[in-house]
Write a structure and sequence with these properties.
Low-confidence stretches of chain B: none
Order of helices and strands of chain B: HEEHHHEEEHEHEEHHEHEHEHEHHHEEE
Radius of gyration of chain B: 24 Å
Strand content of chain B: 15-25%
Structural class of chain B: alpha+beta
Structural class of chain A: mainly alpha
CATH superfamily of one domain in chain A: MetI-like
Mean pLDDT of chain A: 86
Shape of chain A: globular
Strand content of chain A: under 5%
Low-confidence stretches of chain A: none
CATH architecture of one domain in chain A: Orthogonal Bundle
Distance between the termini of chain B: 46 Å
Number of strands of chain A: 0
Largest interface: A-B, 44 and 39 residues
Oligomer: heterodimer
Largest sheet of chain A: none
Distance between the termini of chain A: 9 Å
Number of helices of chain A: 14
Mean pLDDT of chain B: 92
Order of helices and strands of chain A: HHHHHHHHHHHHHH
Chain lengths: 335, 408
Amino acid sequence: MTFRTYLLRRLLQIIPALLGLSILIFVLSRVVPGDPARLALGPDATQEQVEQLRREMGLDQPLLVQYVRYMGGLFRGDFGFSLRTRRNVAQDIKEFLPATVELTTVAMVFAIALGVPLGILSAVRKDRPEDHLSRFLALVGVALPRFWLAILLQLLFAYYLGILPTIGRGPAPPVRITGFYLIDSLLALDVRGFVTAFKHLILPAFALSVGSLAQIMRLIRANMIEEMRRDYVLAARSYGLPERVVIYKYALKNAFSSALTVIGLSYGFLLGNAFLVETVFAWPGLAFYGVDSLLFKDLNAVVGVTIVIGVAFAVVNLLVDLAYGYLDPRIRYET
Amino acid sequence: MKKGFSWVWTPVLEPGRIKAVDKYTVRFELKEAYAPFLGSLLLFFILDKDLVMRNIKPGPYGEFGDYGSAFLERADAGSGPYRMERFDRATEMVMTRFENYWRGWKPNQISRVSFKTVTEEATVKTLIKAGQADMVNQWLSVQGFQELKQVPGIVVKEDPSVQLFHLQMNTKKPPLDNVKVRQAISYAFDYDTAIQKIFLGATRARGPVPVRVPGWNPKVPVYTRNVATAKRLLAESGVPPQNLSIEYAYVVTLPLERQIGLLLKSNLEEIGFKVEIRGEPWARIVELATKPETTPHITAIFDTLKYPHVDSHTYGMYHPSCWGTFRCMSFYENPRVTQVLEAARRAVKPEEQLRLYQLAQELIVRDAPSIYVANPLHRIAFRDYVKGYRYVGLLGFDVAFYDFTIAR
């Protein structure tokens, strides 16, 4: 099987998954209790007003008709009208998605940049104080609720020490190109803006990353211990290769492949679950928008956000699968 | 458009009967006398027609397109002291002062206001404590305000509000369709504990109309906790003990309402009730309220005055025309009260209106369609250098920045 065929097959597999997701979320969002028209118009609206809005939104139609209409619109880039923001959901997603993607990406960078070295350190210094400390930190990282950690970080670094900002993304770059403040400020050659945007990212990204960081660290540790016992490591050492080369070039490459799955899954998971951290840091992201929409029963927004996160999840996992091929030639081009 | 507060005027006002008499006069021709009309005028927002018309988009209102609603989502077209500088949805709204405002400007008045959207209470408290926010809104918990009171440099201003917190009893659902059962419950509830321990200070509600509202009747009967009377009324009701089983619903995101529910449960179990407490999302409460069959026996509701008139908390809550909304979960029906309320709305003379609205209050309270618990305190917190705050008490977001000065 060629790489192209493999890629095509994987892409085709995504379609039924997303279709299933769209049906599921469409039906679920409509069967949960609460009348969206009543909520949108406020509790004082008359029944006539509510009925009028229900007609305008097509909520008086059978579920199947509603779904077909919605999907028809979706293929034309029309995500439907948001009851809360009173504009097309596509516009809302365009506005809020970059904030969450930026936050999640930086969180994953933190998780990998800290989790991998700590995992290696823990493995090569197995059962020594460094190992115990790393394992303890990993345990704490997995156990700590993110929102609680977020509040603690905020109190320490923003309130008591006053060295990092408390909320938000900071001032918007002069020109919005991608919606990612880090990238847009660089494109505008605004170094100060870049530093400010990064400072705003540190606390929320770290709070978001801790769970994944701990998982990656523990996985790398376990895999590295396993790999370091293998014959090829013994052979490499007996050839007199420096320990650094043995660890980073040979053992880590093999140990890392299974951590990739966790990284891929974590990225998708964080995209949709950054809600609590976004709430604490008043981060105007898609997860916050999605959950808020759910509470408000903003049907089109709920479905739109879920589909976008579903697509992101699928794409990230596809990329992870492709990366496997690079790391482990034995599974390249196989389904 | 039939949106927003249009329901207030729908009964009496038709679009073709509003005329601009001259540059500063508008004549409204009502179908009939309508007591709350003058008070309700503050719900009108005056816009610059030319500006709006230049920015209309295609919509269902003929030559008026969308009536500028898309434009007004992101811009202002009003005549107040501030203009909208920036609006980032879900993040921040920035307003700057309009130099040519007709009332003029004095030194130390606020020239720029930044509204930041922060929903997490812990973050809001951190912001004001750290001096990164000058003022926070009124939606913090009671405990949150208590905490801020202890911080030097922060003022927590408390005012009796024009809000009613009550436990609406569904008068169409047995055993609460029996007036003596409802009265028994009203006598069994421990109002003092609710106000002192749960609200941490509030005005005891005396009937459906908040006590600060002109037209409130000081002579309405007030139920106070009296277990013996409650038991006697329950015995007189003739409802067998096995039927004294009720459910209490509250908004699941409001811990205070849950605490009230626990208090109610403990009070009612003393007189033989079984009470099931159920937290529901607000969306669900609104849906349950549409029919008597789906409406819980008792529901906790905060209800703020909708317009500055006693009509809001009498006709608006106890006339059958409001059934199906959260304001009328008692589905109260008393032909005499209905008649009095309709007469009150149609009365032309203010003293006649007042007499009728006050009579209605007395009649309603006797029928005990709600446990009238409290007129909660309105609390707001700001740094001590912010001067000039004055509680107005309508519509929730009523902070008049023009009145403020900064005195550092």
